[in-house]
Specification:
The chain has 194 residues and is an alpha+beta fold. The protein contains 5 helices and 6 strands, in the order αββαβαβββαα. The chain folds into 2 domains: 30 residues; 122 residues, no CATH class. The protein has a 6-stranded antiparallel sheet. The longest helix is centred in the N-terminal third of the chain and has 27 residues.
Length: 194
């Protein structure tokens, strides 16, 4: 091979290698979700937002099966305004909290219902009628909207605190893949209950 042919071949191989490298960089920057990642690793919320127990109620839900809890969804002022206006995507600074408890029958309330039924000549209920929140369950969870800081997780930072301490990263890694399934609703499953 002549010197010119080797130089042209090397130049072609170098250009091809550089093109492949550039393509790999572009592909790595855009994960399957189609969103650019700000960093290689997701960043999680590490502090409990102050005053969240005073936020307004968005909705309540009962989860059955493996989760088996009753939960309240709360929102800061930005979240509440967006939920009420049905505004998507949620604005920057939105914070949504999820508090959950065991879902337990209330012996006291169910006895009262049974006694009342008897007092009006009816048969008492054959199964529990009243259920209440028991002990806290599955930690307290948050979603914080900050599109720049949490670009790797669709613009939302996720958190779970168990007994006031951040959950293990293995728990946190499950948040985004699950919420990303609801990307048509800006990754939020809950709908406002007026």
């Amino acid at each position: 091979m002549t010197l010119v042919a080797r130089t042209v071949t090397r130049g072609f191989v170098t250009a091809a290698a550089l093109s492949a490298f550039a393509l790999a960089v572009v592909v790595a920057a855009f994960p399957r979700s189609g969103r650019a990642e700000a960093t290689g690793t997701p960043v999680y919320v590490t502090k409990i937002p102050a005053g969240y127990r005073d936020w307004k109620l968005v909705s309540v839900a009962q989860e059955r099966g493996e989760i088996n809890d009753i939960r309240a969804i709360l929102g800061n002022e930005k979240a509440i305004k967006a939920f009420r206006a049905a505004k998507l995507p949620f604005p920057e600074g939105t914070i949504i909290a999820r508090i959950a408890w065991e879902y337990l029958p209330s012996d006291e309330n169910n006895k009262t219902f049974g006694d009342f039924a008897k007092s009006i000549g009816r048969n008492p209920p054959s199964e529990p009628q009243s259920f209440v929140a028991g002990h806290p369950k599955n930690g307290v969870q948050f979603m914080v909207k900050d599109s720049k800081k949490y670009a790797a997780t669709g613009g939302w930072g996720y958190a779970q605190f168990d007994d006031g301490k951040p959950a293990d990263e293995t728990v946190m890694k499950t948040c985004f893949p699950c919420h990303d399934l609801a990307k048509q609703r800006d990754a939020v499953f809950t709908r406002y209950a007026p």
